[in-house]
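re: ur question from the group chat, yeah i did fold both. here u go
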Amino acid sequence: TAISVDELRTMLEAGQAVTVLDVRTAEDRAEWAIPGSRHIDAYAALKAGDPAALDALDLDGSAAVVTVCGAGKASLMAAEILRAQGIETRSLTGGMKAWSLAWNTATVSVPASSATVIQVRRTGKGCLSYLVGADGEAAVIDASLDPAVYLDLAAQQGWTIRHVLDTHVHADHLSRSRSLAEHAGVTLHLPESERVAYGFAAIRDGDTISVGGVTLTVIHTPGHTAESSCYFLDGRALFTGDTLFLAGVGRPDLEASAEEARTRARLLYRSLQRLTDLPPETLILPGHTSEPVPFDGQPVSAPLRRVLSRVETMRLSETEFVETILGRIPPTPPNHALIVELNEAGETPEGDVTDLEAGANRCAIS
């Protein structure tokens, strides 16, 4: 009667026939959803025990059904109704909270570089992390999943992880980079900062890190946070963290007073202007996306010229940029203060962290 996140993730990745039926409210679904899922706003009726809650559905029975709600309770009721109709149905254990840890991958083609880049996407959260491999070595950028995921992916490619990096101290998810570095037996690299309470190798603007025969160059891009940095791969691809997204820029207000946010918005403008000087074909690989990531193998990426055409705020004057960005601040990520505290301490709580990390990504300002 139930299906785990890993089971459903594997089915979707393999392209198996399955109908994912979201029974949450329209408002909750708009926040975040499973790619390709169907929707019926049946939550209130299900909670009320209405046996006709799903009568408006038209299911042909050709595919198994997986019902989904916020935490896995209303979906159980929906599954019972459909099974009584003879439809093979299971409920997603833990609901969308548990789905926040689901992931898939895409291989990124980087022209004129010998590196192979694997984009690891938390489809249920929008977090994007990266494995950069060359000549049997690999670096991991912005790890947001269990270390075993990256170690297994690297092993499949015949790579040994030599470097682990974060672009900044994250506020919407728990960084797994410290834990991954410990499991891999390597040094953790972080942008120079006094924010964290554990040991790391500080990297500064212009520093380089070699991965096999390729090079990552540090570009300090303060604004989203004071330490935020991007990593430039062989002058061809840019891992931008939360500084620049495909259709927006990073928010400057988290863990900041109003005046600090204004100062950081100015810094962000100058950092973004610096990025506009890079070659227009530079491939932008952001640290997050604001949309659920399909199981399609297509990277979340775009050349810089296309990003610049989409992000109109980057074409404003500094004054206009600051006022526009501060006027568009989205709601803060859930539990962001505690997540920042844990990331600064380098700690990951024992047990289930889905309640802590649940909710859509809100690091971008479009």
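okk and heres the other one u asked abt
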Amino acid sequence: MDGGRSKTRIRDRLDRLGIDELDAILVTHQDIDHFAGLMAVLEDYDIERIYWNGAPDGSTFDSFMTLSLDEGAEISVIGRGDVVKLGGMEIQVLHPGGLTGDKNIDSIVLLVQCGTVEYLLMGDAEMESEQSMIAAGMLEDVEVLKVGHHGSRTSTSEAFLDVVSPEYAVISAGLNSQYGHPHQETLDVLNSAGVQIFLTDTTEDPDGVTLTTDCSEVLVVEP
């Protein structure tokens, strides 16, 4: 799900994990810091399926779509109510319910469930996206929240947290982000809710901390 901006970093991470082919990749939306790394993945790995939200875009995302077509993979547009099946796992698509024309608001949101453990992956979804999912009754308690929009103040409202009530939150942001991510307002609301926060921008070890699961509880594995 997404690949960051760096083509070399995602190659290094996949190599370190011993991965040489991928069943599926998904790009949440058409911002380059989410799909540029996936272009390297398309060039270097065999991929069976590719998922995206179908939003038209006339920028460098066209290059990603060209590579996707050249890959020969099955390309699917997904939205609210769809289910992505990978092996024995069913991944629910919670958003978007319809396209607004705003890349972040239209970002794909996924609920990944393994047994009694649920991971909510927010992409760059914002408060408007959160309200849409709340109104549609799509949200429920989760154990792990991948925080929306790199911890921006435009995401992760108190109303949203009241519904999803995560134990752990992961914020993906670059060190010394030019946008100031993660914003202090977001950190404050997560701390007030008693959520344990993991930040990618301050992780010193290249392998970082791993949040894994045995499908009954979340296991925090230190490097």
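fwiw on the second one: The longest helix spans residues 32-44. The first strand starts at residue 21 and ends at 26. idk if thats what u expected
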